[in-house]
User: Fold this.
Amino acid sequence: METVSPYKEIIEVIKASGGDAFKRCYQCGLCDTVCPWNRVRTFSMRKLVREATFGLTEVEGDEIWLCTTCGKCPQRCPRDVRQIDSGVALRRIATEYGIFPPSVKPVRTVRASLVAEGNPLNQEREKRAHWAQGMDVPEFQEGMEFLYFPGCYLSYDPRLKKVARATVQVLRAAGVEFGILGPKENCCGESIRKTGDEEVFRRLAKENIKTFVDNGVRKILVSSPHCYHTFKNEYPEFMVRFEVIHMSQLLWELVRDGRLKFKKEYPLRVTYHDPCYLGRHNGVFEEPRRVLRSVPGLELVEMADWGIESLCCGGGGGRIWMETPKEERFSLLRLKQAVETGAQVLVTSCPYCMSNFEDGRLSLEEGDIEVREITEVLQEAL
Assistant:
């Protein structure tokens, strides 16, 4: 097949996006051995990097769209090739030319929704805070300790709205001062950036930053690891820096300091799934586990592939919006691992993971398991 982009353009785009490290690759193949795709189909990150070195990569197929940016290959790479940066650069070329295979075409709809309404779910901006109806959640005012930023999925998805409401109840039980900005907020932009749409990411980021600065925001409390990663690690590119705390981190502080006191037992066996963008990308592994171990009656057991080796749910890198055949869904593999532990509840702390696991439960052929976000467990124990 004829390549869409000439060698020079591919090299320059990759270099400009921070992907120039691909030239350090000596084709050892470690990236392929740890890639979760190779548990469900054949996929070679090594091949993509090799082709990109010579400007030969085609952008018309689905190969460049498979990476979930889970972080396993950069973690193992002995040459710091930075495969994610190179992969995103190739997606930028495809986005520029408007070339999307059938499985990726939903990203076009997502882009339009992000531009028009500030969220990827094609929901009205004015309804962004409707999840909090009847709870008297205050609007953030300068001087409050935290801006609580629930993110798009907790603001709009019917299942995940329950997580946002549980979060409010837990924060109130601990006496935490917080407010929300509702319709003034945009999507953090992390996932659309990973699909190669830098223009929309920068637009969303700049609007969010202006909103935060105008409202005197200093500390941002988030439920999504993707928001956490972007606010903490990517927004500083715009010469701003906020203190960003993931909910699981704050929960541990509240438990440790005696501000959360459990009144009920949670007499269930529980296993915890480490989200890629909280664990591998940002090193938050222990806080969620310490929180769960502090709940009376709860028995915590580990799955295969836990901690830094956690198996991706399949939702990162914009894959949450793309079509994945049932037989290629990592979430089903992960649910089977959870069932094998004998756990009654699978707990996580990421909306993408929760969404994929809730969908996957409907396809489980053997066993059953409940899916909970960590704040939901604490809310029940309170």
